Amino acid sequence: MITLPDTSLGTAIFRLTPARCNIYVVSRQGRVILVDTGMHIDRGRVESALSRKGIIPEAIVLTHTHFDHAGNAAWLAREYGSEVIVNTAESEFLARGDTPIPSGTVSFTKGLVGIGRKITPVFKYEPCSADHIFDETFDLSRYGLNAFVMHTPGHCAGESAVIIDGEVAIVGDSLINIPTVKIFPPFADDVKELLRSWEKLLATRCHTFLPGHGNPISREQITAEYRKRMAAI
Ligand SMILES: [Zn+2]
Question: Which range of residues forms the domain containing residue 162?
Answer without folding.
Answer: 12-232
